[in-house]
Amino acid sequence: MSDASGTLTMPDGVAMLERAMSYTLGSLRLVTTEQLSRPTPCAEWDLRALLEHMNDSLLALCEAADVGRVYADPLGVDDDPATGLVQSMRDRACQLLGVWVGADSPARVSIGERSLTSRIVAGTGAVEVAVHGWDVARACGSNRRVPTGLAEDLIELSRILVVDADRPARFAPPLPVSRAADASEKLLNFLGRRV
């Protein structure tokens, strides 16, 4: 993520978000109602809680692109019955991509007292969407790898976004990575997930 002069460059966050969402939609196809109580790699959550969190996150990303602000309390969060949770996620994913790709997103997004570029917000969303997509697949008994090109982009971005202060509150400590690890494993291990 550096150009020829060595200057740090930010990849297209919206393109990464679109690729991450495509991967995660594939993971959502694995979910059945019977699996909603299964544990996930996020120790405190079962699959249902993870999907609810992801729904909230997608709503926040929609707000970021649509109104240039992320509110502290999620707006319009549905209290979905178990059978409708995955469909709600799919609908929200389509809404998210439509807002980010089809509209003129604001240059900056306000989150609490901070103001970030929309590229950073979209890139951060891509990290969350892809990694939680892997979490969903894992909870469903599948080891769907994050696609190599996406994982390579996300690991570089994660190294910028995830700092020591984020651990252990938001992310577990990074895990050792073998020399043979692929990009997906490197990403997940960096974010404290055992592959």
From TrEMBL:
Gene3D superfamilies: dinb family like domain. InterPro entries: CHP03086, DinB/YfiT-like, Maleyloyr_isom, MDMPI_metal-binding. GO terms for molecular function: metal ion binding. Residues 20-137 form the Mycothiol-dependent maleylpyruvate isomerase metal-binding domain. Pfam families: MDMPI_N. It comes from the Bacteria. This is TIGR03086 family protein. It comes from Phytoactinopolyspora mesophila.
